């Protein structure tokens, strides 16, 4: 049975101790670019002294492996306000249907987005608003329909959800065949919450470019925020 390992480093904006606490605040995490049934991450108890965290990886994308896990160690850099994450992925294969690159890329992107979200105090896949969900959903759909740069589909007025894809976005589509975003507006006690999930199809599955996923996630958030009421 073959074992595959991949190691490297990732610079973080957050201080080491604070980022570890943020990452381990909950046990279960879901990839930004896959449904939970396809890819999810389970954080094991951390080693507080070494700032080491082991994450076991589960979902349909891991069916080709007996085990799939990642080990992270976060160390402060010189000024202590930022840090560096050293990672090692380890896959024990049981078949030749290999999904290593997708899994590595997805988890590193999740780490990068979590770092930026924690440091800048916002979420990459939800925004709270002060408006009622039903009225806001209608305005939101109209805003995307009136903009010729998007293709809308699957509008469900009862569940307040729809999908949108980009018709023309050269900077975003450079590495991807398709980018589809599913947007849902949820009523809260006061106001509403706009949530979204992202599905992408890469042009070349053999490339590992976490930065391109990060760029897309940030761009989609900016696109959605631009449709908010003034």
TrEMBL record:
Cited Pfam families = Bet_v_1
List the GO biological process terms. defense response
Name the InterPro entries on file.
Bet_v_I/MLP, MLP-like_ligand-binding, START-like_dom_sf
Ranges of residues in domain Bet v I/Major latex protein? 156-220
Point out the signal peptide segment.
none
Name used for this protein in its record:
Bet v I/Major latex protein domain-containing protein
Q: What is the lineage of its organism?
A: Eukaryota, Viridiplantae, Streptophyta, Embryophyta, Tracheophyta
């Amino acid at each position: 049975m073959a074992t595959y390992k991949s190691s490297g480093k990732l610079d973080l904006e957050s201080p080491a101790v604070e980022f570890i606490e943020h990452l381990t605040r909950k046990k279960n995490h879901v990839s930004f670019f896959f449904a939970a049934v396809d890819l999810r991450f389970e954080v094991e108890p951390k080693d507080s002294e070494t700032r080491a965290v082991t994450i076991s990886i589960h979902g349909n994308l891991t069916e080709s492996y007996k085990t799939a896990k990642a080990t992270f160690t976060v160390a402060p850099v010189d000024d202590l306000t930022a840090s560096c994450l050293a990672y090692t992925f380890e896959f024990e294969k049981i078949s030749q249907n290999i999904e290593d690159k997708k899994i590595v890329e997805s988890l590193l992107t999740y780490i990068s987005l979590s770092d930026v979200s924690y440091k800048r105090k916002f979420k990459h896949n939800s925004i709270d608003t002060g408006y009622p969900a039903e009225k806001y959903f209608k305005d939101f759909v109209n805003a995307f329909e009136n903009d010729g740069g998007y293709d809308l589909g699957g509008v469900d007025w009862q569940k307040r959800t729809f999908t949108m894809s980009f018709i023309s976005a050269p900077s975003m589509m450079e590495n991807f065949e398709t980018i589809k975003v599913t947007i849902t507006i949820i009523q809260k006690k006061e106001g509403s919450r706009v949530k979204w999930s992202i599905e992408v199809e890469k042009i070349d599955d053999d490339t590992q470019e976490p930065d391109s996923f990060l760029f897309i996630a940030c761009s989609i958030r900016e696109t959605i925020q631009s449709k908010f009421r003034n």
